Amino acid sequence: MKAKKIKLILWDFNGVTVTGDHKSTSRKYGKIHGTPWKKVYNILYTKYFNMVVENKISERDGWIKSIQELGWQQDWRLMRKWHLHQHKIRKTVVLYVTSLRRRGYKCVLLSKNLATWFVIEEGYLHFKQYFDTTINTQALNLPKARKKTMQYICKRFDVGPSEIIYIDDLPQNLKVPESMGVKTVLYKNFKQIRREVTSYL
Predict the structure, then answer these.
(1) Which CATH number fits domain 8-19+89-200: 3.40.50.1000, 3.40.50.1220, 2.70.70.10, 3.40.50.2300?
(2) Is 108 helix (H, G, I), strand (E, B) or coil?
(3) Looking at the whole model, is its pTM more than 0.85?
(4) Span 118-137, pLDDT tens digits
């Protein structure tokens, strides 16, 4: 039997496995406050959320600093609650993940998220059941999809970069893995990722 060239498939959380992310939160609250959503996203996600997940500031400070910089009068706790409870499992994706695992491919959820958020979201989404394991880069104190993170993945699962497929909805998360030889798929829709993943198997 021909040996499998692909041994590990990495799946992003927000934007791939589940619907709803900082973009949708930025659109909602940008509309409420009359602020362009891209400006909200750049402050809320690119600037402060990245600082939070890299353990540079607290989650509370991430929300408050974002709101202050945007010049809003907004309860950060209500904004946080909406953000966390907007997510829904993308059924087509998890059914595909399940089928791949049955065929012998190891499927791992790789997320840049907060440990507390993972607990909250697992409580109502039960997403961990669909994967062989889940990895949150905050717990590793590493930025997502950087060289050190990919080296950690390779060592932990005893695979080389060319034996990995990595699926994410943000192109900036795929640049470094691709440069290392990882096969990358930029998520646009389910049919597209299924077609591209299948082409690598």
Answers:
(1) 3.40.50.1000
(2) strand
(3) yes
(4) 888 999 999 999 999 999 98
